[in-house]
C-alpha cells in the first residue's frame, strides 16, 4: 500500500487568522448506504440520521457532520414524485412508500454513484480521512477504475486563502496552465474524460485570462466566466466561490440549481480510485498544492502566462506535449 504525506500550501491561514480547511467528496458504489453510514460512525463516532432513502447525515462525529447521498439530483430532491403525480401515481398513498424508495435507490446505484461529503477538515488533520479510504477499500467499494461505466470523481473543496480578486484570478491562471500536466500525471480515467463533467476550459477563455492586461473587478470576472460558456462542469469549478462573493449576480447568470454558496474552490478533476490500493488521497491533494504554489508566486505566474501565450501563437502542431514538458520542468523544481 502506498503511503504519501499531505503537503501544506503556501498560505495555511485564512483571513480570520485560523488554519484553512478542506472538504472532500467521494463518489463510489458497491457498498450500500446503511453500511457506509456504520463505517463512518465506527471510525469517527456520531449518530446516523436518515433524511430520506437517498440522503443520510452522520452527525456529531469527531470531525463534524458527514453527508451520504445517492448522487442523482432527480432522486435526492424527489423530483420523480412530481413526475409520477403527473401520470396519476401518488407515492404518498402507498403504505410501503419507504420500501419502494429503497428499491428505486438500489436500482439506481448500479450506475449512479453514492457520494460521501465530508465536513471541512483542517489542513493539519487531513490524514484522518485516510482511515475512511482504507475502510471503504476493505469493504470492496468500487471506484473509478472498477468499470468503464464509472466516471466517478474525487472533489476537493479547499477554503480560499483570501477573497481578493487578485487571488481568485491567480488561482484560475495557475490552474489552466497546470491542467494538462495534472491530467497526465494523475492518469485521469477515460470514462471521465469522455463525459462532460470535467471539460477543459476553452482556449479562447485561457487566452483571455492569461493576457497581462486582464485586470477585472469581481463583477467582470464573474460575467466573463459565464460569457465564455463556463459551467460547473469544469475541472476547477468557480461557481461556489462566486456564489459566496456575489450571490445575486451569480444566481442571475447560472443555469442549474445544484451549485451552493461556499468560500472554497471546487476542484473536480481527480479520479476516485478506491479500488486501487496504490491510489491515495494525499497524491490528489498534493497536485492541487502545486496550483496554489504557482498562484502564490506572481513572478512565476506572469512568466509562464507569457510563455503560454507565445508558445500557443508559435506552435501549430504538438502544443500540448511541449507545454506539458515545460510544466513538468517547473513541477520538478517546485516539489
Report on this structure.
Helix content is 45%, strand content 12%. It is of the alpha+beta class. The protein folds into 2 domains: 20-141; 162-261 and 276-335, no CATH class. Strands 1, 2, 3, 4, 5, 6 and 7 form a 7-stranded antiparallel β-sheet that branches. The protein has a two-stranded antiparallel sheet with strand order 8-9. A hairpin with a 2-residue loop joins strand 2 and strand 3 (55-59). Helix 6 (165-185) packs across helix 13 (298-314). The chain is globular, with a radius of gyration of 21 Å. The relative contact order is 0.16.
Helices and strands in order:
Layout: E1 21-28, H1 33-44, E2 47-52, E3 55-59, E4 66-70, H2 73-76, H3 79-86, H4 97-108, E5 114-117, E6 121-122, H5 130-138, E7 154-158, H6 165-185, H7 190-193, H8 203-210, H9 218-227, E8 236-237, H10 239-245, H11 247-253, E9 266-267, H12 281-296, H13 298-314, H14 319-334
Antiparallel strand pairs: 1-5, 1-6, 1-7, 2-3, 3-4, 4-5, 8-9
Helix pairs in contact: 1-5, 6-12, 6-13, 6-14, 10-11
Amino acid at each position: 500500500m502506498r503511503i504519501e504525506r499531505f503537503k501544506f500550501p503556501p498560505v495555511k491561514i485564512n483571513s480570520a487568522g485560523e488554519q484553512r480547511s478542506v472538504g472532500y467528496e467521494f463518489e463510489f458504489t458497491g457498498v450500500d448506504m446503511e453500511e457506509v453510514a456504520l463505517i463512518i460512525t465506527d471510525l469517527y463516532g456520531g449518530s446516523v440520521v436518515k433524511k430520506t432513502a437517498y440522503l443520510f447525515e452522520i452527525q456529531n462525529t469527531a470531525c463534524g457532520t458527514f453527508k451520504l447521498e445517492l448522487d442523482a439530483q432527480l432522486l435526492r430532491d424527489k423530483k420523480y414524485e412530481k413526475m409520477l403525480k403527473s401520470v396519476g401515481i401518488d407515492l404518498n398513498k402507498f403504505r410501503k412508500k419507504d420500501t419502494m424508495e429503497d428499491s428505486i435507490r438500489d436500482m439506481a446505484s448500479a450506475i449512479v454513484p453514492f457520494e460521501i461529503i465530508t465536513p471541512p477538515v483542517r489542513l493539519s488533520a487531513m490524514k484522518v480521512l485516510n482511515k475512511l479510504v482504507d475502510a471503504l477499500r476493505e469493504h470492496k467499494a468500487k471506484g473509478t477504475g472498477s468499470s468503464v461505466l464509472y466516471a466517478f470523481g474525487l472533489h476537493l473543496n479547499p477554503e480560499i486563502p483570501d477573497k481578493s480578486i487578485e487571488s481568485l484570478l491567480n488561482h484560475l491562471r495557475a490552474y489552466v496552465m497546470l491542467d494538462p500536466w495534472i491530467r497526465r500525471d494523475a492518469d485521469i480515467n477515460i470514462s471521465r474524460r469522455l463525459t462532460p463533467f470535467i471539460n477543459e476550459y476553452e482556449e479562447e477563455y485561457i487566452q483571455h485570462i492569461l493576457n497581462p492586461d486582464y485586470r477585472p473587478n469581481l463583477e467582470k470576472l464573474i460575467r466573463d466566466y459565464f460569457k465564455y460558456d463556463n459551467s460547473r462542469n469544469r475541472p476547477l469549478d468557480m461557481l461556489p466561490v462566486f456564489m459566496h462573493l456575489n450571490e445575486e449576480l451569480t444566481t442571475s447568470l447560472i443555469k442549474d440549481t445544484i451549485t451552493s454558496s461556499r468560500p472554497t474552490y471546487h476542484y473536480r478533476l481527480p479520479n476516485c480510485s478506491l479500488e486501487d490500493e496504490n491510489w491515495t488521497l494525499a497524491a490528489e491533494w498534493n497536485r492541487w498544492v502545486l496550483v496554489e504554489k504557482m498562484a502564490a508566486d506572481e513572478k512565476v505566474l506572469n512568466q509562464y502566462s507569457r510563455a503560454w501565450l507565445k508558445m500557443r501563437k508559435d506552435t501549430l502542431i504538438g502544443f500540448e506535449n511541449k507545454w506539458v514538458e515545460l510544466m513538468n520542468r517547473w513541477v520538478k523544481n517546485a516539489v
